[in-house]
Amino acid sequence: MAGAKTSASVMAAVLAGLILTGCGGDRDRTQRENLDKFTAAEIYRRGEYELENSRKPEDAVFYFSEIERLYPYSEWAKRALIMQAFGNHKAGNYEEARAAAQRFLDTYPGDEDAAYAQYLLALSYYDQIDDVGRDQGLTFQALQGLRTVIEQYPDSEYARSSILKFDLAFDHLAAKEMEIGRYYLKRGHYAAAINRFRVVVEEFQTTTQTPEALLRLVEAYLALGLTDEAQTAGAILGYNFQSSPFYEDAFRQLRGRGLSAEVRGDNWLGDVYRQTVEGRWL
Description:
14 helices; signal; disordered N terminus; lipoprotein; Outer membrane protein assembly factor BamD; cell outer membrane
């Protein structure tokens, strides 16, 4: 056992020394020529070593990609491909991570690591959500990728994590609608604000954004003098989120106008009340 560890250490040291040779435009060529002398297993172990010890995951990706070049269609090439996806994701190279993960799925769709490849593919979108501002394209891509993991690999170890991340991404979409809605509300663009809050109430009912969306609907409809809609929004808020501070605020605003939180009139909020509270789907 000790001999095997010593041999591996020597191999890693030799590889490290070889990589330091060459400079400038000759470096890639020198690396490639040197790696030709090693087996796929040795190069793979070097890639693992770089992942564990280097501050630059790209160094590990180089080794894993070289296995594909030198030993295509081998078992080691398959393992190296999934590690390319992982290494690129770790480095924050999300497009490269997606490309490697998708290539793995296309080449080895029935492999036991396919679930992990799909999970990495979804993560490559999910981990960019906070960087996209109001462009929600990547969030939708993350939701689609996470849903694929949940539906196609429900018994995998990645399904539960995908469910949790799906809920968070879904909430993120609702939060962006709220952000835009509040922007319009603050500037007195009530119709535009209502459209945003309506999306949250109708399409993102299970998110944490729904109570505030209902409160903002109360505010917007009161500002427009549409008291039936304001009261109905308050009724939904009171039934589902009575302990929420948003309900207390809505109740205070309605009471200040001599109104109560109750279903009034024939409007879209009345349909929501009948569906979510009374369980009557029309």
